[in-house]
Amino acid sequence: MEKTYPNFIRKLNYHIRLILWSILLFPFGACGQSDPTPVAPETPTITFSEPIDQGEVNNPTISEASGIVASRNNTEVLWTHNDSGDDPKIYAISTSGEVLGEWVVAGARNRDWEDIAIGPGPEEGINYLYVGDIGDNQAVHPSVDIYRFPEPTITDDTPVRDTIRDAEKINAKYLNGARDAETLLVDPFTKDIYIISKRDNFAWVFQLAYPQSTRFTIMAKKIGEWNREIVGIFNQPVGGDISPDGKELLIKSYVEILYWRRESEETTLLDLLQQDPKILPYVVEPQGEAVGWAADGSGYFTLSEKQGNPPPRLYFYERTEE
Q: Whole-angstrom Cα distance, residue 106 to residue 72?
């Protein structure tokens, strides 16, 4: 005898069958719905080693190294300089601390050279060194000088003494009055020059937009402040460097090294300085003021001013994971 069901039972069975067929024919999430929102990739983990002793800088004239930067024209070569009290010279040392030569910058003076940078400049395809005579402990000087010249090329193994005769001087004045500074940066994306003040409670960030005149005094525009309160002299910024690819920034104080990474060329230096930095490994040196990326971005070097009898030593912090 055929079984009969009330109408609502038949309708219920119909809907159950419809649901089951939908599950079989259309996978979950595919029934007319848009794709799930993509998950953003995780920020790469950036880690660096503890200091690797590269050796003694065996040049007694390098007694107050205040800046360091890796060469782009010469393999395993670093450029450095002394701050106030030395002639207007730059020094080449190897990545193991050996002396390779010194160059006098003709027409320049070393009132208080505090940092050195490398980057593009007026002529495409040329690497330029930028030396910042930007120190001013008492904030009394009406202007600062930045010397720009094509990076020298070292052609043999004999330590050399030579003269740079084609340096250009960029003379700049701060709109807001004299400032002491020890951090000079050149953005490889824009060719803009940046100076970060040292003694303000929140460091001032100044920009010298490209192209920079070498005929007239230009104004260093204050574009903002570093969003990090400086407490005490040991946390003052005393040097910095932008990586060769333009994506990573280091700023050094006497007791720590701070790191930022930008994922887009549209991110400005000031944008980065509003973000919380990552604190990188650093073993405090006697008045350590110099920090610079390796030419291949594989890590960073530090060098300190000589204190007493021990000569300064060159240290390297190697990138260990990314």
A: 22
DSSP 286: T
Short-list 170, 154, 173, 150, CA closest to 162: 154
Tell me how far apart the alpha carbons of residues 301 and 54 are, in angstroms, rounded to a whole number.
9
Contacts of 234 by beta carbon, 8 Å cutoff, 6+ apart: 253, 254, 255
Evaluate the omega torsion of the peptide bond into residue 277 and state whether it is cis, within 30 degrees of 0. Answer: no
58-321: CATH architecture: 5 Propeller (2.115)
**Would you put residue 132 in left (φ > 0), alpha (ψ -120 to 50) or beta?**
beta
Instruction: Tell me which amino acid residue 97 is.
Output: G
Q: Using 50, 70 and 90 to split pLDDT, how confident is the model at 230?
A: very high
Question: How far apart are alpha carbons 133 and 67 in whole angstroms?
Answer: 11
pTM for the full model?
Answer: 0.86
Max Cα–Cα distance, the chain, nearest Å: 115
Percent of the chain with pLDDT over 70: 85
135 or 307, which is more confident: 135
Closest by Cα among 170, 171, 172, 120 to 150: 120
> What's the CA gap between 190 and 182, in Å, rounded?
21
The dihedral through the CA atoms of 60, 63, 69, 73 has a sign that is negative
Domain borders along the chain are 58-321
Q: Which two tokens stand for residue 283?
A: 């073993």
Q: What residues contact 269, with CB distance under 8 A and at least 6 apart?
A: 185, 187, 194, 205, 249
DSSP 3-state of 100: strand
CA separation for the pair 205, 133 (Å, rounded): 16
Of how many residues is the chain composed? Answer: 322
Tokens of 157: 């193994």
